[in-house]
Amino acid sequence: MADTSRWEFRARDYVRESAEVAVARVGSKTHPLAGTKRGEETRRADDPLMSADDPLSVIGGESGSGSGGSGAHPIEAPAVPSSSSWGLKKQTMVREYLASGCAARALVLVKEIRSSKASSSFGGGDDGFEMLESSQLVERSAARLQQLERGGGEKKSESESESIARLAALHSAMIRHWANDERVAALKVAIQAAKTLGESNKVEEFYPALFAVATEILDNFGRLVYARIAKKEEVNPVEAKETCRNWFYKTACIRELVPRFYVEAAIVRCYAFLSADFPQVLSRLASIARGVGSPLRAAYARAYLALNAPVRGKFAATIVHDTLFQFRGVLKLETPLKLLEPALEMILGSPADVDLGEVLAQYRDYCNDATVLKHIIEAFSHEDVASRAAAIVALAKRAEPSTTSTVDLLGRLGRKFAGAPPPKDQRLAILNEVWKVVTRCNDVGDYVTCATHWLDCLLKHYSDREVRVLLGDVISHVQVATTTTTPNLEDLVQMLIQSKQMLASDHLLKLLDVFRPHRKVEIAKEVLASSSKRRASSSDPATIHAMLEIARVAHDALDSLSPPGERRHVASLVVSFVESVDMGRDLERQLGVYVECRAAFPNLDLVLDRLVLLAANLAMTSKRVATRALRKSADNKSLAERAQHFSKACLAFAHVTIPSVESGFRKLELLSLCGHVALLNNCLPHADTFFKAAVALVPDLPEGDDRLSGFVATFSSSLVLVPGHPDRGPFYLVQGLLNALPRYAHWKTRQCDAYIPLIPLLGAYAQRKLPYSVVDANDVLYGGAPDYLLELKTHLSSLVSNILDHLASLDPASLKRAELVLDLINNLHLVINLEDAGDAKDFARKLLALATKVKHTFPPPLKAYFDHTHALLHNNNNNNNNNHPPQLASAASSSSSSARGAGSSSPNYNK
Amino acid sequence: MGDIEHSSLEISLKRVDRIYRPGEMVEGVVVVSARAGWAHKGITMRVSGTVKLQLSQRNVGLFDSASSSIKPREVLRETIEVAPAGRFPDGVTEVPFEFRLGPLVGESLYESYHGVYVNVCYVIGCECRRGVMKAPLEREVEFIVEVPTAATPQPDPRSFSIAPESLDNIRATSLSSIPRFKISGKLHRQNCPVNLPLTGEFVVEESEAQVKSVELQLVRAETVRHAELANSAREATEIQNIQIADGDVTRNLVVPIYMIFPRLFTCPSMATNDFSVDFEVNLIVIFADGYMITENFPIQLHRNR
Where in the sequence does UniProt note compositional bias of the Low complexity kind (chain A) (predicted)? Predict the structure, then answer.
């Protein structure tokens, strides 16, 4: 046993020490997480996956350069489609209206193209429609092409795959001819392609897909022609004009109507070279389409014109009118309306030059079909629709339901009205009219969808009364149909929650009650999740209240049997809600919400935890606000005082909340954190309470002594800041800790690890100036008083003897013990003048001898640590210099257990 | 030495389209590509316009075959000395020329036209004599003459209405067995400028039978009169047939009639003592059951000034 009474504390210069042990810092030009693009690219070349053996990259290469097999020729890569939306649309059309599984075929095709490139070349690889045919289809298409070239007359009826294959062959043939300067042949092929759109023996279901594929060829053809004439024009405008005129003469004498129309529409842009009057040309083309008897085909022809028209104009009105006029024919032929819809959408596409009133009149006269009206409504702007609200509602009510039901239609109308409301004087009448119909709807799904759209509209443009009535209606509807699932109701609830005027929380909760309990919880969770995804902070009390209720639903569903994953999920949802609460400068209200939340979610540890953190943060925010105010004008004293009171409230909140947190160690951490906050806010009694509570908690902690020893190391850094208690002396917390530690029941091997960090703490207390402070602490209060130092030494002595006891209990041969011994020596060296008193020096040497015995078993890092420590002691012997800077042997050591201490680490305060 | 392999002669007209009207100046250059340079005895240019008529074998008796070809009529003859005798240096030399387009006395110019039995053709021929030892260089080039019609005629629109009753070749008794139909419409003009499309519209007001197709047939009739034989021959040829409606035409929807006159096969209607070229348009309605009705419209083509 060492006699520590003669030991002297070393005077330390923390600033210099930390500068000495600090790692040299060098500015960095690159961020480790920043993209390494250039590096990747260079690597890509070597990447075996990226080599030419990759089938996918081969396809890419091939489609760029044409097929090597059939006479390599440079193919003018067709430009990307002018409007990418059309490109997308085209793909969906092919996908949707082509019955057979294309994806599977595409895979076969990939293989086949690589093995046999004989059949045809694939030039325009941009839209990937070549992917549509399979291996045998490619072969078959080649055979068919020959047949065509021989003038192989009428085909009886083709399956869809045959048609597509034939078109693919035509496409490649067209590009091949063009590349070979056989323009007339290319034109002929384009005509062939257009012809498929006029053949009457095609299966109707397949027409939209056929249209998409055939127009692809025509588009490419049109681009090629345009590019060629444009090129000519640069050289010789007169000749270019002549060429252009020739193209149109050639087009004009195509015998059949449909190909003539499509080819001219494909090259219609070229009229620009003749400085033709586009509106006139387009009007003519539009009216020529009237000759197409089949309403379906006619509609698609018009759609193509609408797509290719370089300008909008009067023709837009013509095609809309004609389509509506021919609509009855669609019904008569029993063509599925679904087939017409894509065309309808394109025709109505951007009706900038069409008058809605006229269209509606035509619709009324010719169609009266819900689907058509739906597309009309969708095509026009909110304002247009709103300006004719009454008329449209009347039409919608009368419309014959087809693929679109009346309620669906009215729902869409509601969506439009949400964008722009009907005239003020009509609003109520319109709502009444609509709801008369909607309320009779028996399909809950449709009803709810419709109601959702209208709710949006009502929330934006109507008064609270209407919203309430509507919600009442929704609730009564949904309650009737509780047996069926109502998938759309969530949207409605979402909208209700998103809306600014979240008035009717009773309605909302009633709505939630409609769901079966399980579903209700699910919906509550979904609502929470989506609002957390939006990351919007909410400051509206009503919204917060509603969200709180919803979160409560999710919370209350948890019980002791809920799986931990479920708990975590709900907890994280609630946490994100709690975090989203942002009352701005109204901090008291914010705290109020936290109080409510604590009451609402007692079962969720994570939430309580987060509430404590948020309250602590709130206290700091209040301090910041006060500091800022004080800086502006010094006489804002009352404000500062209020801020401190509020901080106290926050701390009180934290204080009563922390005990509810389940995990003991977490409690410890929170207490310590709140203690810091209290110190920063100058609330010493609160800080004392928190730290005392933390110390008192130590004996009751669960298993995990490594966590505890880690905590003590950190905590000892905090204790530097805490001033002594006026009654219980300067060291009552240290004393308390020293008392508490032995009473912890689950010590295994880490007890010394908990004690050793306290040595630097005592060393720090002995300084005339503490390394850091926030309030006046022990250095100011007791500053070097002999009693104070004496007491300090007593504590050091008992601490060291504690440590020695434990060292003695360890196996003398264990590396662990040797390591602890080294830690102890180094820490003592930090705080004690080992040079002065022979006693201390001897003590240290004896300690070192303990380690030396097992030196031969040390692994290299520990060996290095030992050597450093050894050198340290002997250096000191040779050199009797008091001011010799203490060397931190541990800095060179890989075992870091002792490096934490009051001296070398300082808590990171948010000052 | 130059790069020219063979000496040659080219005629290049100033107008790319080579279309001229009576009274206009025809301008151009004779391009002489001379290999190694040589002396010549002058370049002569001959401009000629001829009307060639022919009688169809069908209209002429088998034994009259000798006279099936009528002597061509010359309407334009012009000889121009482009360059006097001299020498062309090695390389390309351009010699300009010009002449005013006008008919021979007592004749008039007709529009260039290549038909089956009637041909109106204008040619610029050019010859460069190079003495006895060398073959003369020759070149011939056709140019096109457009003759505007003296006065622009009135458009003369025409309405029509086709119904079973209006058909010519149906007996009154079988009228009731024909499915009802009524097609009405109009041509915007029967006097059409040849460079503008034929336009009009039609409406299928009713039709019990399904319509399969509506087509527009452009027919050209050439008539050749032979004074000696007191014989005239008329030959009608379909020169274009385009579909203007496909499938069962929507009832009561106004469908446009629109046809561009094909450039090579049409010209303004011509009527002379020897020959005439006329045009007519047939509107052909084909029903799904195979029946077909035709409405005939004679039209006059003219060329605007």
Answer: 875-911
A481 touches chain B (CB under 8 A): no
Contact criterion met (CB < 8 Å) for B254 and A290: yes
The fold adopted by the segment(s) B158-302 is: Immunoglobulin-like (2.60.40)
> Tell me: the pLDDT tens digits for A359-388?
888 888 888 888 888 888 888 888 888 888
Cα–Cα distance measured from residue A762 to residue A752, given in angstroms and rounded to the nearest whole number: 16
Helix (H) or strand (E) holding A895: none
Residue type, A263: V
Q: Which residues of B touch A256 (CB under 8 A)?
A: 243, 246
Q: Which tokens belong to A714?
A: 């950190």
Between residues 247 and 276 of chain B, which touch chain A (CB distance below 8 Å)? 247-250, 253-256, 258-260, 262-263
Structure tokens at A886: 């203490």
| Facing B17 at nearest CB: one of A242, A254, A326 | A242
Nearest to A70, CA basis, from A105, A127, A116, A23: A116
How far is it, in rounded angstroms, from Cα A226 to Cα A233?
10
Give B244 to chain A, closest Cα distance, Å: 6
User: Cβ of A255 and B241 within 8 Å?
Assistant: yes
8 Å CB contact between A699 and A743: yes
Q: Residue A165 and residue A185: Cα distance in Å, rounded?
A: 19
Cβ of A293 and B246 within 8 Å?
Answer: yes
DSSP state of B157: -
Distance from CA of B195 to the nearest CA of A (A): 11
Task: Tell me the pTM.
Answer: 0.63
Higher pLDDT, A85 or A252: A252
Q: What is the Cα A102 distance to its own chain's centre?
A: 32
Q: Quick check: A253 and B243 CB within 8 A?
A: no
Whether A256 and chain B come into contact, CB under 8 Å, resolves to yes
Q: Indicate the CATH number of B2-145 among 3.40.50.2300, 2.30.30.60, 1.20.120.80, 2.60.40.640.
A: 2.60.40.640
Place of tokens 């002018």: A82
Coil, helix or strand at residue A355 = coil
Q: Does A254 touch chain B (CB under 8 A)?
A: yes
- Rounded alpha-carbon distances, angstroms, from residue A33 to A30, A36, A37, A246: 8, 8, 12, 61
A401-430, pLDDT tens digit by residue? Answer: 888 888 888 888 888 888 888 888 888 888
Q: How many CB atoms lie within 10 A of CB B7?
A: 19
Q: What's the gap in Å between the CA of B193 and the closest CA on chain A?
A: 16
Task: Please answer yes or no on whether A253 and B260 come within 8 Å at the CB atom.
Answer: yes
Tell me how many residue pairs between chain A and chain B have CB atoms under 8 A apart. 75
What pLDDT was estimated at residue B30? 93
Are A475 and A513 spatial neighbours (Cβ–Cβ below 8 Å)? no
For residue B243, give the nearest of A257, A294, A322 by CB distance: A257
Rounded to whole angstroms, how far apart are CA atoms A406 and A396?
Answer: 7
Q: Best mutation site among B253, B264, B284, B285 for testing chain A: the one with the most A CBs within 10 Å?
A: B253
Strand B292-302 and strand B191-193: pairing? Answer: parallel
Residue A258 at interface with chain B, using a CB cutoff of 8 Å = yes
Rounded to 5 degrees, φ, ψ at B21 are -115, 155
Q: Which residue of A lies nearest to B203 if distances are taken between CA atoms?
A: A291
Q: How many whole angstroms separate alpha carbon B5 and alpha carbon B9?
A: 13
Q: Phi/psi of residue B257, each to 5°? A: -100, 125
In chain B, residues under CATH classification 2.60.40.640 are 2-145, 158-302
Closest CA to A757 of A679, A828, A662: A828
Nearest to A609 by CA among A555, A545, A551, A654: A654
Give me the torsion for CA of A874, A880, A881, A886, rounded to 10°.
20
